[in-house]
Amino acid sequence: MANAALSAGPRPGDGYVQSFARGLDVIRSFSAAAPRQTLTDVAARSGLTRAGARRILLTLQALGYVRSDGRHYALTPRILDLGFAYLSSMPIWNLAEPVMERLVDQVKESCSAAVLDGTDIVYVLRVPTRKIMSIGLGVGSRLPAACTSMGRVLLAGLPDTEVEALLRAAPPAAHTRHTLTDPEAVLAKVRQARRQGWCLVNQELEEGLVSLAAPIVNRAGETVAALNISGQANRTPPRQMQELMLPALLAAAADISKRLLA
To answer: What is the percent of the chain with per-residue pLDDT over 90, rounded to a whole number?
Structure first.
């Protein structure tokens, strides 16, 4: 995977706990496409032997993170504790939610917040108005940074050398006929987002979807998250979204950033 290729973290011999890493691989093997799996499925999807996968599954089952009907395994709601630990440890999200709700009331479009994780953005908050994407989005959802407005805003917070390394590790893929796949073209958009302090993406992730994003910054002026609003191009064309909604989005992002400083 691209994110694995980017990892420069510890390896066996310098603090790397391989059994723990394998346990995380087993957890990550479950997804919307594979919510229930046999032992053979888990072993194949996690790259482990059946014996290794079985030991980890039994451990997770004893801890209450996995359940089994004797043949199939599935995650339990307790697994949400792991993600909630991150959200509850970051007071920014409690501060951001009421601001996002007010923004949605004002612009009548969905609003989301995300952070950067390798070559992806990860959704940490979402206030929808209506379903506008065929992709089901919620907290924890991942999307490629290169073709999303929040992704480009988050990439804009990095030096060009880091952005170039990320684009080399995961070359932009075409999702629609509008998607920019040339790394230099994507880098130019990232630089534009850095200069102007916001980014608009028109139908690069999904046909008909337009999104507008702005950075949330901390006390040091570093981009720690991105805030966006998204809508349908046939209802809110890109120019209209920029003219009518950008001021409100920038004000909301500034409000959240200011709350971080309090």
So the answer is: 62
Q: Can you give the pLDDT at residue 32?
A: 78
Structure confidence at residue 80 (pLDDT): 75
Residue 176 maps to which CATH number? 3.30.450.40
Residues 32 and 111 in one domain: no
**How far is 137 from 131, CA to CA, in rounded Å?**
9
Say whether both 195 and 223 belong to one domain.
Answer: yes
Dump pLDDT digits (tens) for 173-210: 999 999 999 999 999 999 999 999 999 999 999 999 99
Cα 237 to Cα 209: distance, rounded to the nearest angstrom:
10
What does the alpha-carbon distance between residue 227 and residue 213 come to, in Å, rounded to a whole number?
Answer: 5
Pair (236, 169) in one structural domain: yes
| Amino acid occupying residue 255 | D
Strand residue runs (E) in 166-254: 199-202, 209-217, 223-232
What pLDDT score does 44 carry? 94
Measured from the Cβ of residue 51, the count of other Cβ atoms closer than 10 Å reads 9
Q: Is 70 exceeded by the pLDDT of residue 88?
A: no
Q: In angstroms, rounded to a whole number, what is the distance separating the alpha carbons of residues 216 and 124?
A: 13
CATH code of the domain containing 50: 1.10.10.10
Contact between residue 183 and residue 168 where contact means Cβ atoms under 8 Å apart: yes
* Count of structural domains within the chain: 2
Q: Which residues span the domain enclosing 61? A: 2-79
What are the b/e assignments for 144-178, b being 16+ CB within 10 Å? bbbbbbbbbbbbbbbeeeebbebbeebebeebeeb
Cα 64 from Cα 79, distance rounded (Å): 8
Residue 11 in this model has a pLDDT that exceeds 60 = no
